Structure prediction request, 251 residues.
Amino acid sequence: MKQYHTGLGVGDVGKVVLLPGSPERVPEMAKYLEDAREVAHHREFCAWTGRYGGELVSIVSTGIGGPSAAIAVEELAALGVTTFIRTGTCGLLQASLRRGTLVVVTGCVRGGGTTQAYVPTAYPAVADYRVVAALVEAARKRGAVCEAGISECKDAFYLEVPECLPLEKAARERWEIWRRAGVMATEMESDTVLVVAGLRGAKAGSVLLGLGGCGGPDDMEPMNARELELLTCTALDAVVRLACAERDGAG
Prediction:
């Protein structure tokens, strides 16, 4: 039986899934897999499956925001997925961080509404330590500029442009709070992936490519092919590291 929203069924996906937001990005990421094939494409959920380093891996888009990300994680978990890695983009909140930095998320500020429908905000959105370690090691092995830290998640993308908001002053004060608190990135999906995966007994993590400082002139420049390659291959290398650790009994 196929899952209602994603159109995926038993045998379509591997135990490990990368979760980009954009469906158009999935076939580009799948170029790094061997024997890659599209297994479903319904609404915002585009899914490809193949092998990397001998490991069966799937890439499934979530669309934008928490509600659709939750649907993807729920339906994939129902098919037996045990590890989720969000692979997306983010705005950078710290002045020391530059475009192209890979942010490996250790935990999230739960600013979106989807996870609050699942469990009270006192429940933390925390990445699995094994996934974090594998992503950091993979990024550094590739020579990437990499930082591990907290991401702020939200439901409204254009909160990043405070002058568009009726409560402009409050929005600017909120950004300053997160900066002072050392939050590294702002985005829309990682909290949902971490919380829902955790509630379903799966491991989860997130690696984000920084597009620029929040409100900066380069924020709207999309990720280029070289940046997508770095993001994709870092996540895929982490998958292999996790599989090796599990076979060695460390997972």
Residues 116 and 241 are 33 Å apart (CA to CA). Residues 16-247 form a domain with the Rossmann fold fold (CATH 3.40.50.1580). The chain has a mean pLDDT of 94. The chain has one domain: 16-247.
